[in-house]
Amino acid sequence: MKKSLFAVAVFALVLAGCAHQYGSTTPDPAHPQVSVSAGKVSVDQEVIKVPKGAPNFRITWHLPGGSPYQFDPTTGIAFDKSAEQFSCTLGEGGQTYVCTDANTAPGRFKYTVNVRDAGKPLAPLDPFIDNG
Predict the structure, then answer these.
(1) What is the spatial distance between Cα 91 and Cα 123, in angstroms, rounded to a whole number?
(2) Using DSSP, how many helices (H) and how many strands (E) does the chain show?
């Protein structure tokens, strides 16, 4: 019996280690990944789903480290409407952009991602944030 319990415990630890090593396949709404391929900007989440009941939810968009890409310093992440819901600033070396979502109003909010390649603007991308 002790050997069976030990085997089950070891198996559970191995599974937990594998899950941690490979991570979740679900995108993290607090850390969307921005990438550029063939001059086109994309985000790993077409809609960022902010957890319900999470006031002042902080979202940090990330560009690949060491790449020539940077967020536009003033409009890296810009909102079409309800700007009072969001407060944004440029992060570390232009590779991150941080916004705090007050998350006081439900709805879907369109935003624009503005990225530069060695100072030259790329075509913007217009995804959404969903405050459930």
Answers:
(1) 21
(2) 1, 12
CATH number of residue 95's parent domain: 2.60.40
- The token pair at 66 is 């060491």
Which helix (H) or strand (E) element contains residue 36? strand 34-37
Q: Is residue 40 part of a domain?
A: yes
39 CB burial (10 A radius; 0-12, 13-18, 19+)? exposed
110 Cβ neighbours under 8 A, 6+ residues apart:
79, 80, 81, 126, 127, 128
pLDDT tens per residue, range 64-103: 988 999 999 999 999 976 668 999 999 979 999 999 999 9
Question: How many domains, the chain?
Answer: 1
Whose tokens are 């790993």? That residue is: 44
76, part of any domain = yes
CB of 97 closer than 8 Å to CB of 77: yes
> Are β-strands 128-131 and 47-50 bridged in parallel, bridged antiparallel, or unpaired?
parallel
Look up the pTM and report it: 0.79
| Interatomic CA distance for residues 48 and 51, integer angstroms | 9
